[in-house]
Amino acid sequence: MPNASAHGGKVLFSVLLGTFTVSLNNSALNLAVAELMATFDARATQVSWVVTLFMIAMGMTMPLTGYLADRVGRKRIYLLGLWGFLAGSALGAMAPSLAIIIVARGLQGVAAGLMIPLSLSLIFSAYPSDQRGRASGIWGFAVMIAPAIGPSVGGLLLEISHWRVLFLMNMPFAVLGLACGYRYLMAEPANHRRRFDLPGFVLITIGMGAVLFSLSRVETPTDLLHAASLLPLAGGLLALAAFVRVERGAEAPLLDLGLFAHRGYRLSVALACLQAVILFGCILLIPLWMQNALGFGPLETGLVFLATAVAAACCSPIAGRLIDRYPPQWCIGAGLMVTMASLAGLATLTEATPVWMIAAWMGLRGLGLGCAYLPSTTVGIKELPEQHVAQASAMNNMARRLVSSLGIVALSLYYDMAVKAALEQGLSYGEASATALHHAFLALAAIAVLCLPLAWRLGRASRDAASTTATEPVPPPLQTASPRRPQ
């Protein structure tokens, strides 16, 4: 087993490099919006495509990962994605115009859509089921810490250098990830008989792209009434509904929706989606409060989020070990309880609340995040057959992105309407914002309450799956030919 553990560690390190590269780049580039506007004399709506196209391209590519991994092999597709991310970084660093930067970000989004769903699949293939929680916890450390340090690194590089360096900084990690990937990731036979589900691909691509595009354009309640947002949203939802109908009758579906028949996986996706709304809801609300109501700058806001990410990153490896050794509902349930406490604390914010108190509540939220968010996904996926992990991870990611996008739109619309109503009643902007935030954070806390029974049921489903696997009869050993008498 030591050799197996050592090999698993090498696979984990190789995948961590690619994941870290994607997460670091995406969070660092968010700070370059203002400089890109000044450099290319562009409007904010034009530069916003640097972020928006990445998310849309990634969401549209994820459905393909399961098919491509089966048809070509996980190692080849993952490394192809890493090559694509490296090429996108080089193109962005040399881009002479904003249009080329946006193309580069689209290429990076496609690459990330290939890499992210395969990350857990590659890691799980190198570890037995009872060690996958620990491995995914270490992977979660990189997932959490990269977005935390990204804004700090990006801000420092923008202070001393040029926006092009934000693309160049990815390249050493990507090159090292490629070198380790070619050396340590295991190649596997390709299934050349796997047929391509063209109707399913067309429907899921149109559906994901249209929904994400329309939601990215909604900033006020009236935007929902505009044809430019309403028609893509309605068309995308219809395409997704048609996709489900087509896939249920397909012989070789692009995404195996039958995986939702596994109770543990189904519960884990529901938990991940609800927690994603909480996660991205806080990312939306806290900057609105700190910068618009309290007048703090990006540095103070970034430090507050750093408390969340550092706490979550430090807690994630511990949570991974806990779900390997103990019933997972206790770790996930404890994380949800801590999340509820932190959201209730954030609901008490006033204009007199000091920054250190906001950071303390956000750090507590990070502890809850580390104990509950990634472990929920890990528990639901780690018991699935290895050949289904890539598809399961892709569907989990897509569901989280769709639900969290809808949640962010709902929260932002509520915040705008609540602040407007409070201002009409004669309250100051700070008081109006505090009132809106109070109800918004209580709503997020209520979502965490809804997650508790799901976490308990997920733990029971995981226990039942483990007991079923343990009681399955072991097949007799294969008969081997005698060396003295050829058969």
From TrEMBL:
Pfam families, alphabetically? MFS_1 (PF07690)
Which keywords are on file for this protein?
Answer: Cell membrane, Membrane, Transmembrane, Transmembrane helix, Transport
* Membrane-crossing residue ranges in chain numbering: 44-65, 77-104, 110-127, 139-158, 164-186, 198-218, 224-246, 267-290, 302-323, 330-349, 355-377, 398-415, 435-456
Q: Give the span(s) annotated as Disordered.
A: 465-487
Say if the entry is tagged with keyword Transmembrane helix: yes
At the top level of its lineage, which domain of life is listed? Answer: Bacteria
For this chain, one GO molecular function annotation is: transmembrane transporter activity
Task: Report the locations given in the UniProt record.
Answer: Cell membrane
Which PROSITE patterns does the annotation name?
A: MFS (PS50850), SUGAR_TRANSPORT_1 (PS00216)
A GO cellular component annotated for this chain's UniProt record is: plasma membrane
The Major facilitator superfamily (MFS) profile domain covers 11-463
The annotated topology with respect to the bilayer is: Multi-pass membrane protein
Q: Which InterPro entries match?
A: EmrB-like (IPR004638), MFS (IPR011701), MFS_dom (IPR020846), MFS_trans_sf (IPR036259), Sugar_transporter_CS (IPR005829)
Record family assignment: Belongs to the major facilitator superfamily. EmrB family.
Q: What is the protein name given in its UniProt record?
A: Drug resistance transporter, EmrB/QacA subfamily
Q: Which organism is it from?
A: Onishia taeanensis
Q: What is the lineage of its organism?
A: Bacteria, Pseudomonadati, Pseudomonadota, Gammaproteobacteria, Oceanospirillales
